[in-house]
Amino acid sequence: MSDILNPADAEFAQTLRAALPEGTLDGASASYLEEPRGRYAGQAGVLARPRNAQEVSTLVRMAADARVGIVPYGGGTGLVGGQVAPDGPAPLIVSLERMAAIRDVYPDENVLIAEAGVILANVQAAAEGVDRLFPLSLAAEGTARIGGNLATNAGGTGVLRYGNARDLCLGLEAVLPDGQIWKGLTRLRKNNTGYDLRHLLIGAEGTLGIITAAALKLFARPAQTGTALLVVQSPDAALKLLSLARGLFGEMISAFELIHRQGFDFLTETMPDVRQPFETPPEWCVLIELGLAADMDPSSALETLFASGAEAGLVSDGLIAGSGAQADAFWAIRESIPEANRRIGSVSSHDISVPLGAIPEFIVQAGERLARMGDFRINCFGHVGDGNLHYNVFPQVGRSRADHENQRDAIKACVHDLTDELGGSVSAEHGVGRLKVGDLERYSDPAKMSAMRAIKAGLDPLGIMNPGAVLRG
Q1: Cα-flanking dihedrals φ and ψ of residue 346, to 5°?
Q2: pTM over 0.90
Q3: N or C, fewer C-beta in 10 Å, the chain?
Q4: pLDDT in tens, 58-97
């Protein structure tokens, strides 16, 4: 479908200007044509920055009439190229950055209504302002926007306790591909009235419509928080420690992150100002956070976990944060690793998930298979509590990723084939975008692909919504 689209050219821009308030349109500057990994460069089409859902509706209707493709744009932090169009006719880029209002907060209902352009950190702050928690948390929260978080079904560090972005949303306002505004900003917890358009649009990456606002779930803030870095013998020991922690604390585990020594080494190599917690980095460790009731002492709780883990032969050392500042320092280590990775420059990066019990087997087998392909450094880390690993392959010291460019596809196939063999997913939390369109086709059930294509054709028969993302044109 995308090959019949027309470009967003000067004539089309003039038509839009006649129908929209002054200042809505602009030329697409370089910042809207880039993505963090530098794999794609977008085309310079027309940039629109609407102020409300009605203006988005006008843009979509006029794009449909002119057969012009639309690329919705949030914070631009996506890692699979969903926010840029590198080929095909130049698109209309619709940035939601001006739709950045917190419309309403209902603390007694634990609900917050935010427009799609609100930065995630500002959603968190608005919740904190009424003594509530919005638990979606990720490294890009200072620039990522909530509409994009929902469009990609973002994950982050709190999935273990609170779920993905889709689990944190009660209702949506969205503009559909024909320009209709769906006014679905319900605050209801129960609503069994036909197909759930909310969950259809969440995770669709702008291919079925443009999210303009959301009703988000809030939670009570934990009365106390405990944070620790615990040295474990292996990934298998980490999983056993997680099971032990669940037996002790139930659903009070807010995060459980696996970190490999390579992550510490990369920080030493690229970000020496980041203070490291261990004099000698361990081979494996976990970062655990507990959100506890007022009558529980965080240090005592974590000391109990450490003692039980040590007795079971799972834990050999550890650090318990004695203050909020120290806890922040532990998290700074975890959140700095992706930036260190970027500075090293990966040959191939993978956002995968496997069943929890398959994590140790995946790590061993992936390392063995890649060793037969060459000499690489591997940084494996991630949200092990929900089975999501960031498994990234890097060149050895003295070499660059360009030296292995001819191996990149083979490395990706090696990692993804193993993920599929173990019953996993080749996209755990970053989405499909343009980077993984072929992977979706290769690893997905044929019935699922058929249903997805039928949904796309039914809602977007002209193929104007983010053409080239998720599904081929």
Answers
A1: -80, 150
A2: yes
A3: C
A4: 999 999 999 999 999 999 999 899 999 999 999 999 999 9
